[in-house]
Amino acid sequence: MAEASASLNELRKRTLNTYGPESAVCSVNPPLPDEARMTLLRMKYESEYKLANNLSSFIEEATHKQNGEILKTAPKPVENKTEEARDKWGDSFERSVGNENQSMTETVSNGISESLHKDTKELNFSTSTTLVVPEDRQTAILEVNKALPAAGASRVRAVRNRALQQMVQGQRSFGPVEGVEKDRPQWHPPWKLMRVISAHYGWVRSLAFDVTNEWFCSGSADRTIKFWDFASGELKLTLTGHIGTVRGLVVSHRHPYLFSVGDDKQVKCWDLEYNKVIRHYHGHLSGVYCVSLHPTLDVLVTGGRDSTVRIWDVRTKQQIFALSGHRDAIYSVQTQGVDPQVVSSSADATIKLWDLSAGRCFSTLTHHKKGVRSICIHPREFSFASASAGRIKTFLFPNGELLRNFYGHNTIVNSLAINEDDVLVSAGDDGSLVFWDYGAAHEFFRTNTIGQPGSLESETGIFTCCFDQTGSRLVTGEADKTIKVWKEDENATEETHPIHWQPPSGLRRY
């Protein structure tokens, strides 16, 4: 018996020296019996892949009863079949004490390896695996960490991460991560600066394109609205009338109207045939930060510092709804033709989905930790993206389920824009411009804007960005009082700019 104990201790020391104190064999919680430990040690020295496969099969057997539930250990009386295997091992152990030519590992292998591998539940003689549903995701992760071995080797750790991901998502397969090929990003060419337009005397805070794509307009802190020829970049017209910063612009696709909002609490409707204001919408108690036009109804949506989303009838100037619920200034509103028809984001770090027919909040999303400065709706998919300081997230309509997190843009994100080619652009307060593959949350290109000569270093921020009607040009409004036009690099190929992407190994969707 003393020789057997010495062999066991020697193998333990070898495991600690080779794989460290966090190895899968030494850190199993709850502890395995000595015979199971010896079998796992033998498996480790034979093949690390084999150990990973056995750990995977052990987890799969424990979760085959119900799909999507979480591991938890609980005491259970020892079964007769387990006791028989234990007695069988004990007999072989006693016979091995007097045999000096037979090693401890071979004895364990000949004695119980076959019975152990027939049923993975026999790996633990003192506990059994029960299935419970945790109350929240954090509890689920703690339970999985408690029940799974703490892997020291990289491949065993990968098995553990896959198990955690699939348990949280309710998947049963423990093979390759399901959906990895689906999430593989498409190739997109990098973007480059095409034109710089300098004509405003203040920060450019808003942009809007005409439905014909022949011109676009910009609103600035110099209280003017300027119209630009998109092909040549020449100034066509300047409108004055606001007495504060013009914070939002939208051009109607069905009428020759332009709607503008600003810090002067005013909401104006401009007739573009006569270039003058024809309607005022009175009701906001403070500055108006954002505006959106419903795609099918004659309804205008505005939001601002008074924490209220206001719905206006374009024709009669009457206020239809005053949607209250946000606790801070509203930074962005978007509309779509189906429920929920209005989406708003606020400095209170929440996003609200509004039912326009009922005039009430449909759902409140609290995934962000800081103020949500921008939201944009995908032109083809039934989803939208939101941005706050250092965080970009995508959600699925109609209930707002979280789809993905975008990691890497670690600054205040002021604006988002997306085109039909699944290119998402995030504009940062430090002048950074990041291009993402929307479906895979993959950053494929990053650049920084260059301030105009004579501007301060702090005046490199980008306040707003938007694509043209074709999605092939990007226009940004910046703190150096310029408007920049970006386009794809036509000389780039997949060979010159390959995709640097690796499949996710952890929980990338949460």
TrEMBL record:
CDD domains: WD40 (cd00200). GO terms for biological process: mRNA splicing, via spliceosome. WD repeats lie at residues 197-238, 239-280, 281-322, 323-364, 406-437, 467-496. Keywords: Repeat, WD repeat. InterPro entries: Prp46/PLRG1-like (IPR045241), WD40/YVTN_repeat-like_dom_sf (IPR015943), WD40_PAC1 (IPR020472), WD40_repeat_CS (IPR019775), WD40_repeat_dom_sf (IPR036322), WD40_rpt (IPR001680). It holds the Pfam family WD40. The keyword Repeat applies. Belongs to the WD repeat PRL1/PRL2 family. This is Pleiotropic regulator 1. It comes from Galdieria partita.
